């Protein structure tokens, strides 16, 4: 056990002695390199930072979590490169969500909606369209700038109990707080959650969406593990975290996003008035029957991951042996985890295309594979295009098939290699 016993659970403070998976040393998945930075590294004038990417399981509260190596300030920096609006699937998802909650909770021009981790305003723009007052909290300067250009008020800070009172007093308390795909991204998860009960009105509602741990393990989605994700969340662990920090879950939805996610609905423990749905207890029973409250459930994941690694390497080596051109699409964080775990370089994947112009012309962290435009992908005309963002593969394949000059076959790796 050794070094594993040194880690303390970020929720319940128990010692962590059980491993889910070890993906080796990797750079932060969104630390894309400019040409100058790449030249600096290649000439040994500077070093590309890499950190162990190990995931542990708490045998007390069953929170699955990474070891603490990378600070949030380093990963969520001013030039953070993930912009939610580049995915039409995700923009449509948030539009449907806003329609749902506005109707369900009777929100109107007298209400206030607050989004934590508002990114580039992809969700709050739908709130604006309904003439409902809103503001967002977003610490990354690059995305906050885009949100503000849409006329959205943004508080440029990391959220937590330390600034929750200030935010509530200055910007207003919330009838609805939204936290989509951020709960897994916070190192101080108790501090983060406890701030919600401060900003929420007495009868306010908070919703959290996050990739579901059961789907990650059953779907072999190890590429969704990266340093930005400090926690990998079961419903059981989230119930424990929220209840310790002033919130009570009263309902839950299962979603298809990100390979399978949960959306939970919570209210203040002290003032909440909504009755708890049967779905809450049903989900707890489902997880218990699946074995998620036993360490044995998590013990075989490393072997599954290693098998995928060998199979994909064999695929790429065979393609090179047969002189077939291979490229990839979507310079997503999950793709960087996969590529760096396998040790892939540009000799096996020539380039990776992405429609985000802020990524084009840069290089993937670790592998240094160049990020190109869709036009450059067309010129290369690969035999295979590896779809790294498999969670939106249908959107990407449909988009690429519109290009009559691209005659590639499309490949996904997770949960198994599929060529179409």
Compact description:
This protein has about 425 residues and is of the alpha/beta class.
**What is the spatial order of strands in the main beta sheet?**
6-5-4-7-8-11-10
**Beta strand count:** 17
Radius of gyration: 22 Å
- Main sheet makeup: 7 strands, mixed
Identify low-pLDDT runs.
1-5
Number of helices: 15
Global morphology: globular
Give the averaged pLDDT, no decimals: 93
Quote the beta fraction. 15-25%
**Distance between the amino and carboxyl termini:** 43 Å
Percent helix, as a range, is 25-40%
Structural class: alpha/beta
Q: What can you see in these coordinates?
A:
With 420 residues, the protein is α/β, with parallel strands linked by helices. It has helices spanning 35-42, 72-75, 88-104, 124-129, 141-149, 161-171, 189-194, 196-199, 213-218, 235-244, 278-290, 301-321, 333-342, 374-380, 393-401; strands at 18-26, 51-57, 64-66, 113-116, 134-137, 154-155, 174-180, 200-211, 231-232, 247-255, 261-268, 326-329, 352-353, 371-372, 384-387, 409-412, 418-419. It has a seven-stranded mixed beta sheet with strand order 6-5-4-7-8-11-10. A six-stranded mixed beta sheet has the order 14-13-12-15-16-17. Strands 1-2-3-9 form a four-stranded antiparallel beta sheet. A hairpin with a 5-residue loop joins strand 16 and strand 17. The model is unreliable at 1-5 (pLDDT under 50).
């Amino acid at each position: 056990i050794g070094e594993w016993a040194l880690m303390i659970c970020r929720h319940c403070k128990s010692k962590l002695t059980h491993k889910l998976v070890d993906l080796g040393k990797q750079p932060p998945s969104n630390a894309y390199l400019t040409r100058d930075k790449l030249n600096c590294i290649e000439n040994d004038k500077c070093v590309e930072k890499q950190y162990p990417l190990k995931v542990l399981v708490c045998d007390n509260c069953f929170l699955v979590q990474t070891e603490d190596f990378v600070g949030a300030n380093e990963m969520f920096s001013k030039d953070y490169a993930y912009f939610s609006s580049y995915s039409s699937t995700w923009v449509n998802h948030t539009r449907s969500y806003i329609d749902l909650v506005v109707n369900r909770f009777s929100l109107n021009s007298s209400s206030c909606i607050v989004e934590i981790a508002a990114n580039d305003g992809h969700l709050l723009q739908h709130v604006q369209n309904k003439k409902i007052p809103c503001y967002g909290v977003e610490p990354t300067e690059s995305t906050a700038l885009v949100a503000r250009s849409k006329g959205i008020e943004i508080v440029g800070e990391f959220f937590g109990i330390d600034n929750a009172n200030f935010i509530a007093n200055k910007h207003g308390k919330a009838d609805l707080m939204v936290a989509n795909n951020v709960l897994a991204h916070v190192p101080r998860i108790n501090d983060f959650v406890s701030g919600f009960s401060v900003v929420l009105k007495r009868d306010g509602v908070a919703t959290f969406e996050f990739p579901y741990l059961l789907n990650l393990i059953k779907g072999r989605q190890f590429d969704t593990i990266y340093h930005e994700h400090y926690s990998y969340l079961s419903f059981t662990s989230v119930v424990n975290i929220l209840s310790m920090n002033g919130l009570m879950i009263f309902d839950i939805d299962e979603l298809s996003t990100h390979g399978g996610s949960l959306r939970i609905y919570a209210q203040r423990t002290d003032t909440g008035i909504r009755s708890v749905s049967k779905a809450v207890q049903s989900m707890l029973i489902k997880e218990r029957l699946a074995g998620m409250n036993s360490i044995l459930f998590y013990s075989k994941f490393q072997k599954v991951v290693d098998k995928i690694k060998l199979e994909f390497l064999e695929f790429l080596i065979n393609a090179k042996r047969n002189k077939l051109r291979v490229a990839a699409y979507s310079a997503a964080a999950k793709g960087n985890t996969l590529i760096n775990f396998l040790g892939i370089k540009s000799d096996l994947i020539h380039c990776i295309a992405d429609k985000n112009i802020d990524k084009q012309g840069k290089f993937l962290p670790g592998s240094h594979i160049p990020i190109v435009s869709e036009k450059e992908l067309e010129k290369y005309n690969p035999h295979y295009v590896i779809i790294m963002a498999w969670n939106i593969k249908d959107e990407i394949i449909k988009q690429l098939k519109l290009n009559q000059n691209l005659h590639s076959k499309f490949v996904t790796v997770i949960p198994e290699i599929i060529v179409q």
